[in-house]
């Protein structure tokens, strides 16, 4: 592997391509904007040198300075590469530094939204993979703080995050989408910032109990048997049980988890609560959860448009959601700068 301080070719595109294979190694593209100036990296950085070959640009444990960044930008480079065996180092680095990335005025808003979304997906995926890990709560809390700050402090941030929300249905991305809607809607309802923060943690983890449901069942197309339906519905209690083992959690975090499938008319589960007996935070999460589920493509159903989903919630599903909340939600989605 040769080393290089500058690429021989220019890279005018800012579109991040997929992973590439070279010399037996897989290289993953990373965005230059995800690197924070004057931080020490614990992974190698590579440049694409054409013909699917890569040259070493920066060795680990050396600071990445503004001089390096400017030299790359002068040469039109906005994409660097990490080797597959070091990808986890980069992911961890970005998660630890996402606050600095989001605070950097030189990084475009849309890029910030994309990077935050990527970090969120990793954190939520890890939570589902290892729901009992003690690292889950502090990582989710830090992520929730960044998400709340991003959604509430930047004009149009919710719309930006919403526009990059994945069209494929995965439990992780669904959790992030619900969190973004919940934060914005709670803000519209005048919920205090400290509570929004806790609510965001709960929204990110609201479906954690699904980590115990077989994946084939979650993605099954066609009708579910009553036994299968019962098993899927257990995810609410399982989520409460899993989170109950984390002692650092506030009771507010539990509300979205416990109440997100309750419906105002008592047709929800598992407690079949009605009306105001469902805490506001549960009603907010139930609405966001249903809207995102309907507007996201699943293995067994096409995605509805936002208009179709809201229309359905106002007609066929009338009585199941809080009318006032639904009105606020519709108004919020209509405004392109909603936050
Ligand atoms: Fe759920």
Quick take:
It is built from 14 helices and seven strands. With 339 residues, the chain is mainly alpha-helical.
Main sheet: strands, sense, barrel: 3 strands, antiparallel
The named CATH superfamily of the largest domain = Hypothetical protein af1432
Distance separating the two termini: 47 Å
- The helix content is 40-55%
Computed structural class: mainly alpha
Strand order of the largest sheet: 1-2-7
CATH architecture verdict of the largest domain: Orthogonal Bundle
How many helices? Answer: 14
Number of domain units:
2
Poorly predicted spans: 1-17
Question: Which CATH class of the largest domain?
Answer: Mainly Alpha
Instruction: List the bound ligands.
Output: fe (ii) ion
Strand content: 5-15%
Whole-number radius of gyration? 22 Å
Average of the residue pLDDT scores: 86
Describe this structure in words.
By secondary structure, the chain is mostly helical. Helices cover 50% and strands 8% of the residues. Strands 1-2-7 form a 3-stranded antiparallel sheet, with no helix packed on it. Residues 1-17 have low confidence and may be disordered. The structure holds fe (ii) ion. Fe (ii) ion binds next to loops. Fe (ii) ion (FE2) binds at residues 207, 235, 260-261.
Question: Could you name the key traits of this structure?
Answer:
single chain, 339 residues, mainly alpha, Hypothetical protein af1432, 3-stranded antiparallel sheet, two-stranded antiparallel sheet, 7 strands, 50% helix, disordered N terminus, binds fe (ii) ion
């Amino acid at each position: 592997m040769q080393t290089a301080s500058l690429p021989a070719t220019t890279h005018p595109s800012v579109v991040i391509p997929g992973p590439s294979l070279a010399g037996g190694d897989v290289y993953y593209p990373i965005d230059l904007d995800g690197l924070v100036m004057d931080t020490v990296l614990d992974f190698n950085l590579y440049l694409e040198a054409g013909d699917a070959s890569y040259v070493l640009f920066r060795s680990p444990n050396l600071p990445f300075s503004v001089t390096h960044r400017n030299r790359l930008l002068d040469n039109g480079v906005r994409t660097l590469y990490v080797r597959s065996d070091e990808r986890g180092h980069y992911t961890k680095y970005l998660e630890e530094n996402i606050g600095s990335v989001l605070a950097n005025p030189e990084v475009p808003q849309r890029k910030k939204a994309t990077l935050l979304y990527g970090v969120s997906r990793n954190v939520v995926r890890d939570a589902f993979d290892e729901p009992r890990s003690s690292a889950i709560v502090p990582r989710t809390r830090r992520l929730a703080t960044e998400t709340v700050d991003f959604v509430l402090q930047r004009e149009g941030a919710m719309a930006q995050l919403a526009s990059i929300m994945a069209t494929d249905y995965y439990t992780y991305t669904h959790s992030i989408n619900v969190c973004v809607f919940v934060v914005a809607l709670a803000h519209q309802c005048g919920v205090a910032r400290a509570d929004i923060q806790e609510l965001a943690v709960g929204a990110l983890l609201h479906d954690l109990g699904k980590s115990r449901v077989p994946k084939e069942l979650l993605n099954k197309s066609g009708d579910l048997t009553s036994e299968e339906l019962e098993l899927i519905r257990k995810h609410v209690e399982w989520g409460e049980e899993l989170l109950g083992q984390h002692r650092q959690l506030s009771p507010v975090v539990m509300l979205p988890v416990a109440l997100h499938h309750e419906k105002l008319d008592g047709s929800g589960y598992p407690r079949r609560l009605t009306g105001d007996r469902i805490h506001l935070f549960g009603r907010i999460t139930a609405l966001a959860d249903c809207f995102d589920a309907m507007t996201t493509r699943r293995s067994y159903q096409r995605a509805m448009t936002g208009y179709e989903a809201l229309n359905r919630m106002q007609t066929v599903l009338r009585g199941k959601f809080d009318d006032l909340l639904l009105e606020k939600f519709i108004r919020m989605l209509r405004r392109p700068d909603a936050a």
